Every structure is written in structure tokens, then in C-alpha cells.
Recover the amino acids of this structure.
């Protein structure tokens, strides 16, 4: 039975998509069959794995709003063991379109109940907000993975984010756990990075992954080629860090 | 009569807050009386100017949802000629709470009609989404200022953003103009930065500001001291760039 992980942080630009795409690719490389779901209308994860978001006909939008069966929206990628449900810009309207639907916060959870049996891990990339799309992901998830940029504004949002996780656990999904906090874009030469890491370690020591993802331009180049870092530049520090992170993630969250 | 500018981009982490705070500070230094409005529930602009978001009693939330008169939510900052309407986390619920309110997209425009006479420029910092808060800002605005990080995912979102501006102009606010596109976090040593800039210059040459904001760690340190860069490290490249940008912005948008 696979685990469902929501990659979320309402702070923008902290590395949610980069983490979702590269964790999915690294897990599939380590023989864990993985499904990546793009729940962001920006559809960055969709283009990050080489799909053209302007040519997508079946997406998570069709599944959530137009009742397309989930299995019909799943597409394979160029890499073994990694499948994707893409997103489209129409998803922006989901907040309003889902208002009339009964039990709108739990649509995704019900749809994934069966799919969970076909994968070792399902990873959901969330938009930078605490709206109905993110709530659906948190309702369906076994664990929350929170990337955090080593910067001051990102630090400010962390307490708010953990409060939201507690609220969802209390009201919507009682078994929602914390998969962990991952430091991203870390530049250990700066005081700011070290200060932010120290601060987070002080308040949430039990949640932090040992692996830290360094800032590396190769990581931000890879999406323009539609590839995870592992397949764009396997020898780069970005590829090594995400592979190492995937191994730590498997130990902590998948029990392997 | 002052101009109202919405700083927006649905892509997260592109420098919206950093631009809103530092443009407001630079304009007030250049003797333009400025009001900064924080429309983001993350309340980063609020803490970026030294206010404690946990101690705010009157905010943009009280104005939009609880009908507090706008003038009562305005607070002064430590710097002459710069005032602020802070935000709070409760604003997250505004999407749902405003649903019952008549003409919910135009609340802010009506409220600012009078306030506009008291300032040379009103700057609105938007959240990373195209929700009712951003629509309210675009409905009230004379122009849209779009920060864009010199990275691939940020480039992808630009076309979508300009489509949204056209939609708002056609349906909600016929005189909404484009204040401009500002390159942020530019690292001219990397190919990626140069490629993204070339791409944007090819498609939207008439919108781009000449001033480019470089990546500089001092800019990301300033918010942890609750100060705009001008008052944190006036001699830094970040302070010079935003002051230079404010001068160009005044020429293009305020007609001075
Ligand atoms: N470790 C890293 N080193 C360098 N650049 C990175 C790194 N991780 C992410 N980036 C780049 O930083 C930008 C922000 O990352 P990303 O888009 O993954 O964040 P996000 O949290 O998904 O953003 P959003 O809030 O818009 O969904 C992207 O341009 C990405 O390529
Ligand atoms: N020119 C720059 N050089 C270095 N760091 C920067 C620069 N501009 C912004 N930053 C930092 O990058 C991060 C993202 O910037 P900021 O928070 O202003 O973006 P935003 O678009 O407002 O994000 P959100 O989408 O969450 O509202 C912040 O930690 C900020 O301090
Ligand atoms: Mg993303
Ligand atoms: Mg912001």
C-alpha cells in the first residue's frame, strides 16, 4: 500500500515543485513506483517532466471538476516507474467551481483510495496557497513534506503552515502526519542560511531531514529541458542531493 | 491624484514583496508620499517594514471583511512619507467570507477612491495567486507592476499573467494599464538569467524596465531587521538598484 505525500508550503518559490519532481524521479530510480500529481494551476511540475501544458486534454482539473476517472488522466513519462497526472491553467477556477460539489475538501482522497494500491508513493505538488486544492491534497495525504528556503520570509510562514496541518488533522484527516521539513536553496556561506537553519532546528528539531539541498544553478536549468535533475545532469550536486534525500525519505516515510 | 499600482505575479517567490516594500521606501525617499497595502495573508510586507503581524488589530482584513473605514487601518512607519495598511493571517479566509458580499471584486477600488487624493502613489503587494484578493487589487489599480525572477518557471507564468490582465481590463477595470515588467534576482554570470531576459525582451519589449535588480544577499537579510534595504544598508547594490528603479518608475508611471 503506497504512501501519499503532499508537498506544500503557502510561501511562494521555496522549492515545492523542484522537490516534488526530483523526489519522484529519484524514488523511481530507486525502484519505487511513483505517481506525481500536479495540483497547481501554474502546471510547473507538468512542464518540469517534459509535458506541454498547452496540449494536455485530460488533467487533474478534469478529474476533480469534470468527474473524469482518475486512471484516465494518468500518463507515463520518459522514465521507468514514474507516472504523472498533469495540471492546466483552468484549475485556477476550481475554487469557485468546486463550491457546489458535496464534500469538496475530500474529493481527491476518495479518488486515490484505489490508486494507492498501484504505487509505492504518490507525490502531490501544491500551489502556494491554503485553498481548496491544497486542502484536498492534505485531506488525501498520509504525510506533509514541507520544503523551506533558508530565508527570513520563508521562516515566518512555517509556524502558520504547521498550524494549518494541525487544523486539517483535527477536522478533516485524523491520520495526517509530518513527513518532514527539507531545507532548500541553502547557501552555507551566508549567515542568513545558517541563522534560518538554526532557528528551525530550535523549534522543530524532530521534523528536519538531515539532507540539505544546496542552491545550484543546474537545478533551475533542468526544467527548461523538461527533465528532472537526475536525467539532465546526473553528476551535479543537485542530482546527488535529491538522490540522497530520496533514500532518507524512504527510510523515514516508506519504512524501507 | 495619486496612482494605484498592483504588484502581482501568481508565480511564487519572484520578489513581489521585496519590490513593493523597497519601491515604497525609495519613492518616499524621493518625496513621493506613499501608501503600501499588504494584501497577502502571509503578511510579509507587514513584517518587512518592521510591524509585528501578531499584534495587528486593524488590518486590510478588517477593512475588506469587517467594514472598518480604510483610514482607520493606516499606520505610519519609521520613515517619513511612507504609510502602511498591514495584513494578518485571517485574510486567508477572505475568499470564502467575501462570497456573500455584493460586488466583491470591486470593494477595494471603492474604498481607495478617496484615499487616492492623499498620496502620490499607492502600492499593493499581492499574494501568489489569482484569487479574489488579487482581483480586488487589479480592479482598483491604474497599473500592474510584474516582478519576474530570471528563471524558467517564472517565465512560463508570464503569458498567463498578461492574459489575466487583459481579462480584468475587459471585464472589471477598463483603464488598467501595464506599469511594467521588472527583472529581479538576476545573476548575469549564468546563461539561464541571460536566456530568460532575452526571451522576455523578444515577446514584451515595450513593458520591460531598464533597471534590473541583481541577486544580493543583503536584500534578503533586510526583512529580518524589519527594514527596507535603503535603511538597512544604503550603500548596498540592492539599495542603489531599487532607488534607480524608483526614479525610472516615476518617469514612466507618475509622469515626473
Ligand atoms: N536548490 C535550488 N538551487 C537553485 N535554484 C533552485 C533550487 N530549487 C529550486 N530552484 C529554482 O527556484 C525557483 C523556485 O522553485 P520552485 O518553483 O520549485 O518553488 P515552488 O515552491 O514550487 O514555487 P511556487 O510557490 O510558485 O509553486 C525555480 O525557478 C527553481 O528552478
Ligand atoms: N534581488 C534579490 N536578491 C536576493 N534575494 C532576494 C531578492 N529579491 C528577493 N529576495 C528574497 O527571495 C525571497 C522571495 O522574495 P519575495 O518574498 O519578495 O517574493 P514574493 O514574490 O513576494 O513571494 P510570495 O510569492 O511568497 O509572495 C525572499 O526570501 C526575499 O528576501
Ligand atoms: Mg511550484
Ligand atoms: Mg510576497
Amino acid at each position: 500500500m503506497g504512501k501519499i505525500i503532499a508537498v506544500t508550503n503557502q510561501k511562494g518559490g521555496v522549492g515545492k515543485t523542484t522537490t516534488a519532481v526530483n523526489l519522484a524521479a529519484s524514488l523511481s530510480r530507486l525502484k519505487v513506483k511513483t505517481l506525481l500529481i500536479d495540483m497547481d494551476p501554474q502546471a510547473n511540475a507538468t512542464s518540469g517532466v517534459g509535458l506541454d501544458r498547452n496540449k494536455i486534454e485530460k488533467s487533474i482539473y478534469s478529474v476533480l471538476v469534470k468527474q473524469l476517472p482518475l486512471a484516465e488522466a494518468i500518463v507515463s513519462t520518459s522514465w521507468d516507474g514514474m507516472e504523472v497526472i498533469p495540471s492546466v491553467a483552468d484549475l485556477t477556477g476550481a475554487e469557485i467551481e468546486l463550491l457546489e460539489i458535496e464534500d469538496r475538501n475530500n474529493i481527491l482522497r476518495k479518488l486515490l483510495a484505489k490508486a494507492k494500491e498501484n504505487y509505492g508513493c504518490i507525490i502531490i505538488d501544491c500551489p502556494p496557497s491554503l485553498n481548496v486544492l491544497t486542502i484536498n491534497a492534505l485531506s488525501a495525504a498520509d504525510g506533509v513534506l514541507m520544503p523551506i528556503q533558508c530565508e527570513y520570509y520563508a521562516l515566518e510562514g512555517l509556524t502558520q503552515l504547521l498550524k494549518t496541518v494541525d487544523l486539517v488533522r483535527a477536522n478533516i484527516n485524523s491520520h495526517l502526519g509530518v513527513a518532514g521539513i527539507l531545507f532548500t536553496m541553502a547557501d552555507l556561506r551566508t549567515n542568513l542560511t545558517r541563522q534560518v537553519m538554526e532557528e528551525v532546528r530550535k523549534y522543530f528539531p524532530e521534523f528536519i531531514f538531515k539532507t540539505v539541498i544546496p542552491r545550484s544553478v543546474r537545478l533551475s536549468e533542468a526544467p527548461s529541458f523538461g527533465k528532472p535533475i537526475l536525467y539532465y545532469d546526473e553528476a551535479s550536486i543537485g542530482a546527488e542531493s535529491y538522490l540522497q534525500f530520496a533514500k532518507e525519505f524512504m527510510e523515514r516515510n516508506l519504512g524501507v
